[in-house]
Write a structure and sequence with these properties.
This is Zinc finger protein 704 isoform X2. With 361 residues, the protein is an alpha+beta fold. It contains 12 helices and 6 strands. The structure holds a DNA duplex (11 and 11 nucleotides).
DNA sequence: GGTGCCGGGGA
DNA sequence: TCCCCGGCACC
């Protein structure tokens, strides 16, 4: 299904639909700011890595702060767009550009519906029995969507990807949280147009969507800001849209070796590229390594993710028909040579019940 | 039954 | 990443 997101009438209609759906989930009367003390820490968070995450987050912000100043401070708040972008936009307004043009957490904007969600009321819980008041705040909405769409993907992954919009104009590294904002930026700053009526869609070619893994970023930022951005992350769209625009980037900031400057330092439309990392939990980015009958298993070539994919996707064949097992080598192995008594003399692999490294075939 | 080692899990 | 072990195929 394709929606013409540039059709103003359609936009308004869909925006209304969206609001109606949102209010159906959480009645407006029950929407209230959540005290920052309620912001949960993900259960799997390790305190030991916190300092590193802070450093990384600081690095991100430092890099961003070097971007040229381009935002028009008078820009009006973006209007939600239909479809998935509406979700992203409406719920991502807490990641907004400050008036200095730098991308940052805007903690002053408390009016947008993307501020931390309140605990759902009892009524809401009746409607969505999977929700419990004790659930993490940042999982409330995703949980409901999880329930409604029977998403089999573990909910932990749902909040990690944040879509941002980056200006691709040469020497402009503007990053905004909304497509309408970046369109306005391109239109007014680069194309020299002043009003929306001037728009012919050309600005679409000068920005790209980038997906940022917010897990680690927000971990670091959570200690730098009074409210945790993770509490207002966008409800996930699973599988996440591989963006409709012809240009998109996916940037995983989850690992320390992911070069943050990559996010910000490139740009010119012609240099566009897709950046993807092979992360085991990056659900929709699926690499499937099929194992054919008779293929010799090659452990070194199997990544963690492929292990998971294989586990999920490959139906075990009858043992008699497998034939995938590596033929037993002729050489004597550590076990045979040294015996169980001298197990400490075995090679490491043998001790770990792995393929012998000392007496290879 | 002994052996080799894959796959998975815990720390 | 290290270490261990269940489990399975091969001998």
């Amino acid at each position: 299904m394709h929606l013409d997101i540039r059709n103003p009438g359609k936009q308004a209609e869909l925006a209304n639909n969206f609001r109606a759906a949102q209010e159906w989930i959480i009645p407006p009367s029950e929407m209230q700011p959540l005290p920052s003390s309620h912001i949960p820490v993900p259960r799997n968070r390790r305190p030991s890595g916190h300092a590193d995450k802070e450093v990384m987050a600081a690095t991100v912000l430092t890099s961003l702060s070097t971007s040229p100043l381009v935002l028009n401070p008078s820009s009006a708040p973006p209007v939600p767009e239909p479809g998935s972008r509406a979700w992203k936009d409406v719920l991502s307004n807490s990641y907004s550009s400050s008036t200095s043009g730098n991308w940052s957490w805007d903690t002053s904007d408390q009016s947008v519906p993307s501020t931390p969600s309140p605990p759902l009321s009892n009524d809401a819980n009746k409607n969505f029995p999977l929700l419990t008041p004790g659930d993490d705040v940042n999982e409330d909405v995703p949980e409901s969507t999880h329930f409604m769409f029977e998403d089999p993907i573990p909910r932990k992954r749902k909040n990690s990807m944040k879509v941002m919009f980056k200006c691709l104009w040469k020497n402009c590294e503007k990053v905004l949280s909304t497509s309408s904002g970046i369109q306005r930026h391109v239109r007014t700053v680069h194309l020299g147009r002043n009003t929306d009526s001037d728009s012919d869609g050309e600005e679409d070619f000068y920005y790209s969507e980038i997906e940022i893994n917010m897990d680690s970023l927000t971990e670091g930022l959570s200690s730098l800001t009074p409210t945790s951005p993770t509490t207002c992350g966008p409800p996930p769209v699973f599988p996440p849209p591989l963006t409709a625009v012809p240009h998109s980037e996916r940037i995983n900031m989850n690992s320390s070796h992911s070069p943050t400057p990559t996010l910000l330092s490139q740009s010119a439309p012609s240099t566009l590229c897709h950046i993807r990392t092979d992360h085991a939990y990056q659900g929709p980015v699926i690499q499937v390594r099929t194992v054919s009958i008779g293929e010799k298993r090659q452990p070194a070539a199997i990544t963690h993710s492929t292990v998971i994919k294989n586990h999920a996707l490959i139906t075990p064949a009858p043992k008699s028909a497998l034939g995938t097992r590596k033929p037993r080598g002729e050489a004597k192995k550590c076990r045979k040579v040294y015996g169980m008594e001298k197990r400490d003399m075995w090679c490491t692999a043998c001790r770990w019940k792995k393929a012998c490294q000392r007496f290879t075939d």
